[in-house]
Amino acid sequence: MQHYLVREVFGPTLQGEGAHAGRACMFLRFAACNLACTWCDTDFAPQASRRMPPHEIVRHLRDRDVHGTRMVVVTGGEPTLQWDGEIAGALSQAGFRVHMETNGTRALHAPVDWLTVSPKPRFHERNEPLVLTSGDECKVVVDETVTEEDLAHYEQMQFDHWFLQPCHGAHYEARVRRAAMLALCRPRWRLSLQLHKIVGLP
Ligand code: SF4
Predict the structure, then answer these.
(1) Which of 58, 65, 120, 176 maximizes the CB count within 10 A of its CB?
(2) Cα of 189 from ligand 1 centre, angstroms
């Protein structure tokens, strides 16, 4: 039986980003990532993680999902590094709808119900090209370096929804303004403000 390196299982909380912002859900955060974005605010360190079989992951989710959201956002780190048919099947059998958030640089080895690709133009294009170029939504985290040319490049891909999300941390207000200006110039894109942080949820 496969064991997965899991950083945390938590919820219920609100999905704060993208087309499903505001929906109650659970989170499954896998450990480890293949990129090293300098502004990453996610703790995915393998050292503080646990190896868990699928049934244990499902049990943790079920036990915590006290209001019956039956929706789990699978993230990381980078979730495609570990995602396979065994965990996908276990979550589906348990009645969970799976929404995955990936940096898009690794192939997806098992299906999900909703795929968010969040490319990091300055941190992967040279050595880690985007391989997931279609899905439900494309969400670009906007720092000082994201350009209209980057957005034009992603617009060639096959997504149904397009989001610009200001990067939290230093210079946040300037990044909000930059994301808003980019959305004004390229109307396909919508501004996504991390709702869970605004209302004080994890
Ligand atoms: S891809 Fe995501 S999780 Fe990985 S380093 Fe970049 S921001 Fe952090």
Answers:
(1) 120
(2) 21
Known catalytic residues are 27, 33, 37, 40-42, 101, 196
For the chain, what is the domain count? Answer: 1
pLDDT digits over 111-145, tens only? Answer: 999 999 999 888 875 678 899 999 999 999 999 99
**Which range of residues forms the domain containing residue 69?**
4-198
Instruction: State residue 53 phi and psi, 5-degree precision.
Output: -75, 165
The size of the chain, in residues, is 202
| 38 CA → ligand 1 middle, Å | 9
What predicted TM-score, i.e. pTM, was given to this entire model?
0.96
Q: Is the CB of 35 under 6 A from ligand 1?
A: yes
Q: Which of 38, 78, 132, 141 for a ligand 1 pocket mutation test, highest count of atoms within 8 Å of Cβ?
A: 78
Helices marked H in 65-145 — which ranges? 85-93, 121-124
The CATH number assigned to the domain holding 175 equals 3.20.20.70
State which amino acid sits at residue 174. Answer: A
Span 27-37, mean pLDDT?
Answer: 94
Between the CA of 33 and the centroid of ligand 1 the distance, in Å, is 6
What is the predicted pLDDT for the residue at 184?
A: 97
